[in-house]
Amino acid sequence: MVAVEAVVFDAYGTLFDVHSVSARCESLFPGSGIALSRLWRAKQLEYTWLRSMMQRYECFDAVTADALRFACDALGLQWSETLGGTLMQEYLRLQPYPEVAGALSSLSRYRRAILSNGSLQMLAPLVAHAGLAGHLDAVLSVDRLRVFKPDPRVYQSAMDLLEVRKERIAFVSSNAWDIAGATHFGLRTFWIRRGNAPPERLGARPEATVRDLNALAALL
């Protein structure tokens, strides 16, 4: 097996806890915070897939805002532009998982990058707020391609922009559908199985499955 040169991470759900917004959701909509956070995330993902299939791309900012509005409507929560803006700001300061900084530091001998559906306008302040900029060599967004993961062109873009062959890229994600897409493309994949999620039935298996990012250094 050839040596890894670059470790490429998904952002949302892998490095950053998307459900760290639930506390703010709860403060604005008492009793509905967790439900809102979960439906918001589910609809956000669904809209990325549907927009890719329809070839009707919108940046992740717009997709995330549309998903939030849908979730509020579905749960019967009173919407206002002020509340929506407040919650959208939370996506610029999502909490990183506790092990992230240490794990990234332990992988400093590799090139380290984010490959995300997020726009750079969302990712840059997020990375800066978490203090992770010094641990990353690149932050790559799908915006330049105008299509979302798991489209193969997104994984190809990591190869092109990092100038690293696919078999030398370790792709890391907590999203099993993302792992399936990267595995089918030919990247070496490592699934962070957060929350004891079951594997997706998409005909692809990761090279390894671990509970958090701390195990990566030993595996690579």
Q: What structural category characterises the helix and strand content? A: alpha/beta
How would you sum up the major sheet?
6 strands, parallel
Helical segment count: 9
Write down the Rg: 17 Å
Indicate the CATH class of the largest domain: Alpha Beta
Main-sheet strand order equals: 5-4-1-6-7-8
| Shape by Cα distribution | globular
Beta content comes to 5-15%
What is the average per-residue confidence, as pLDDT, rounded to a whole number?
Answer: 96
CATH topology of the largest domain: Rossmann fold
**Sequence of secondary-structure elements:** EEHHHHEHEHEHEHEEH
Separation of the first and last Cα atoms: 11 Å
Would you count the extended β strands for me? 8
Helix content: 40-55%
CATH superfamily of the largest domain: HAD superfamily/HAD-like
